[in-house]
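Handover notes (outgoing to incoming on-call)

Open items:
1. Transposase Tc1-like domain-containing protein: sequence verified, structure written out, both below. Nothing else pending on this one.
2. Nothing else urgent.
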Amino acid sequence: ERWRIITLRKDFGLSMPTIVRRLNCSLSTIHRILDLFSKTNDVAEREGRGRKRSIQGSVRRQFCEIMREHPSATSKFIAERLGSRKGVCLSDRTICRIRRQENYHSVHSKMHWIINSAQAARRFQFSVTHLFHDWHDVIFTDEKKFEIDQRGQVYWVPIFGTMVGLI
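Transposase Tc1-like domain-containing protein structure tokens:
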């Protein structure tokens, strides 16, 4: 959109009010972008502008430590813990936003069934029968790095880069 504003003004010679009507944005926005372009010959903002991050440095490290120690902690608990340890006052909503920024997502636990002795015996017999088979041609799914043990509990786990592999 910023380059479009520059093009409409410089190449087509449209007035600022005309650009405002075409792009449905404010006159001050048009003026600020044209001014930025005249000073820097670019429309990208400089780094370091805008709102500062809510947590950084030691507070961010403390947040990650709390998330690692208490993966099922509520936002309120984390805010209180950060307040008591680091003296920062953050709202519950801010903690939710920080979780997303730090790539945590919620995982809802569910109950896993318990197998009986006959099923266990069948599984054991299958593993003994296929012990020496070549398993390199088999694709396994639902492999996870954690186990959920309580029903109804919400855990916050970091999102790691997705891995796609072909065999």
